[in-house]
């Protein structure tokens, strides 16, 4: 008789059942219920052999028991020396053992699809989305929340100014840790969660890998070479990595803007803009980790990394007005950008009995130098513009940690952190030969100082119950320094201070001591502090200023957002490494920060006419909740059909559904900024038997959605909304293994090459007119995307 798991597997083979994320999760749940518990890490009992299979065993045993002939003994080959190196827990086991909810992505997952950037790896994780168009990376968002809600760390430290994880390649990374709720040690500036990217660590064996890649996007070539070297020399271990790349990428988009009278529907103005550009980039990434074993339980690690990149862009565009004033404007822009960032970190670790101590120090420096020149011609009052910018940021971090083990099941830790940043920015804009923003000067500086202290207590109360309690205090002071040559008082020095207490509680309960089923619970407090860019009050002016093309300015009076979070999840782990998880979460946010667009007096010298201005403000409270489903397993773990052999296929799927509301904003769709309604992934990897070929593919889906950002046009403000069409991204690869040292991988990214379509609408009421008039302006952007093909040779030297 077929077991429940066999029946489920039989249904899986029926062609009428689509392999969606939902069907995979249902299948996994049924198999999990039917599968007997075999103990932690134990395999299911082997089937009893049939008499037919057992019959030949006796003669074979007798033959084995007989002494071999002398001639055979003389010719027996000599045994080779085999060295076995112990490995740490698997990714799924590390996730299972962690008291705080954490997803661990190791080298196998990082190498799976042959991704060119870390962002491509992250987009397939549960609840993670990218803000940009397909194939262009973008802001990383957990649970659909971007704009600072997701904490990004590299080796446990916040990333420097201007740093993008897109600049890291998977070859430079040891693992990625995704925490859905904050902890005292990693920090509480993580309302949506934390992504910690751990660069290559010290190795226990020789490592010498070289990857050579050649790619193509719409006929434009991309080249990349990555080298990783690691070894152990006595008490010293090291791991070094280097990546060099050169690529060309094009962009093509259109923007259609229509302004209408909301009462009559008549069109006041309409314009069509076409934009094309070609971007050439080259860069070098260097990183490493060197560890000295100073004695028993004591080590000193040095971890530097350096990134330098240079890009040049040639862009052209045409703006044509068809209604209102039938004119046109052609533009050509050339820009040049250089960016460099370096960080040097040191960690000293020691042990004395049950006590462990750690001291961490780091210093980083980032520099960005840009130059652009825009030339215009046509009948719309052309204005040539030149922009020169230089930004530099220096940061340091000093942290300490003391932990003590109390028996085998209890540990406590205390820690402190000091972090400082100083940023200086010089920017010169000229329009038609006339300098702009003279009221604010050419130089603006800002500095921030962060102090934190934390304590955490983690213990196993019983074989089935583990708990974690933490408390963190953090204070941040930010000060912007205006240019002494500026004439306006707006450029004077401004300051912002915030202090936050964050209690944290995590717990894991196993259904029984030998069970692979467990329930997670977390009750936490987290926050989001305003960035330096949000606080500094220097404006950024927009050519062709309008409701959908506003000027931008910071707000030094911003207060941090505070969030109370609740997380609950059920997890089931299979004996071969697969897992199934169902979770829910809730976040209640106070002092929500949102960028609003209003018509304000111009910040230029002497006041000037009113202009559209976008500025971040605290607008009230909000809440966000969701359901997160995940399943990944080998098909053989749920395929039980007599003597049939399951295909060597790994399946993975996840589905996240989000819901949020913002108080003070009238519905419908009064959700948090840029949060989609859902995200999903469905992927599979098939290792062909008796063949060196492995095939794999992944579908990433984000549905269409509209968001209402503000609804106060009647009170002198504006009604703002945004819309994004559905995003579907298909990636695939074919891997041919020539041997243990050589592999060839063909990858295709963004195979659907669907355009990215978005729109924004701003509605305002002019109360000075009699009768008052209501105007609505909508801008629709259509951006083209392309398929990206790459061929990569992977060598183990």
Question: What would you note in describing this structure?
Answer:
The two termini are 51 Å apart. It is built from nine helices and 35 strands. It is mostly beta strands and 797 residues long. Mean pLDDT is 82; it is low at 1-86 and 486-491. It has a 22-stranded antiparallel β-barrel.
Features:
disordered N terminus; single chain; five-stranded mixed sheet; 797 residues; 22-stranded antiparallel beta barrel; 58% strand; mainly beta
Assign the structural class, choosing from mainly alpha, mainly beta, alpha/beta, alpha+beta, or little secondary structure.
mainly beta
Q: Gap between N and C termini, in Å?
A: 51 Å
Q: List unreliable stretches of 5+ residues.
A: 1-86, 486-491
Gross morphology: globular
Query: Count of DSSP helices?
Result: 9
Give the biggest beta sheet: 22 strands, antiparallel, barrel
Rounded average pLDDT: 82
Say how many strands there are. 35
Radius of gyration: 30 Å
Query: What fraction of residues sit in β-strands?
Result: over 45%
* Share of helical residues: under 10%
What is the topology?
Blueprint: H1 4-13, H2 21-34, H3 51-54, H4 57-65, H5 70-74, H6 91-97, E1 102-105, H7 107-112, H8 118-122, E2 128-130, E3 140-142, E4 150-154, E5 157-158, E6 173-179, E7 193-199, E8 207-217, E9 220-233, E10 236-261, E11 267-295, E12 298-323, E13 328-352, E14 355-378, E15 385-405, E16 410-431, E17 434-435, E18 443-462, E19 465-481, E20 494-510, E21 517-528, H9 532-535, E22 551-552, E23 561-573, E24 579-601, E25 610-634, E26 649-662, E27 678-687, E28 693-702, E29 705-711, E30 719-724, E31 727-739, E32 742-749, E33 756-766, E34 773-783, E35 788-796
Parallel strand pairs: 4-7, 22-25
Antiparallel strand pairs: 1-6, 2-3, 4-5, 6-7, 8-9, 8-35, 9-10, 10-11, 10-34, 11-12, 12-13, 13-14, 14-15, 15-16, 16-17, 16-18, 18-19, 19-20, 20-21, 21-23, 23-24, 24-25, 25-26, 26-27, 27-28, 28-31, 29-30, 30-33, 31-32, 32-35, 33-34
Helix pairs in contact: 1-2
